[in-house]
Amino acid sequence: MITIYGSPKSSAGRCFWCLEEAGVTYETKSIDFRASEHKSEAFLKINRNGKVPALVDGDFSIWESLAINNYIADAYKPELLGTTAQERGLISQWSIWSVADLQVPMIDAFIQLVFVPEPHRNADIIAKAFEKIPVMLSTLEEELEGKEFLVADRFTLADLNVSFVVGICDDIKFDLAEYKNINEWRSRIANRDGAKRYKALCA
């Protein structure tokens, strides 16, 4: 039995989505940070960093969301991975880009607009984030020109991982109207059964 630690409404969401795409049975365990469960001896044996997400599969444990997704796909849904070294490289490229580049300004804006009370928000941080986000999205928009998916003409981890981050735009109310390719791509992905099951977890 697979156990995933975290919440589908957090950064662990991409892992819940990947599990739903893989169609495997799993159980969810929440970690109470206020009660310092993340510092417990039992949890630190799973992730010595004391962070979520983390996944346990039998006597094997793994942490970091992109690594978890690679494991899930490799073990249970290989079609989410590339069939050649080039495809696997591109899937890694876009997955890493999604967290190293795209996600950074998204999270900056998210923290200010979702967690910080309006009177205390840092307008400069928000403005800088909203300046950077279009630059990142333009890269994705151009890549999707004439394509249904990012790599290999089929849905892969690249689409899942990148789309998960693009979804933050909904939370921060960033207008995606001018990004035709991204919107069409997101619609195709949203119609997948795995994506629908994941969204139901967040309802």
From TrEMBL:
Family that this chain belongs to: Belongs to the GST superfamily.
Lineage, uppermost ranks: Bacteria, Pseudomonadati, Pseudomonadota, Gammaproteobacteria, Oceanospirillales
Gene3D superfamilies in alphabetical order: 1.20.1050.10, Glutaredoxin
Species: Neptunomonas qingdaonensis
Protein name: Glutathione S-transferase
Alphabetized PROSITE patterns for the sequence: GST_CTER, GST_NTER
InterPro entries: Glutathione-S-Trfase_C-like, Glutathione-S-Trfase_C_sf, Glutathione_S-Trfase, Glutathione_S-Trfase_N, GST_C, Thioredoxin-like_sf
Keyword Calcium found: no
Gene Ontology terms, MF aspect: transferase activity
Origin: domain of life: Bacteria
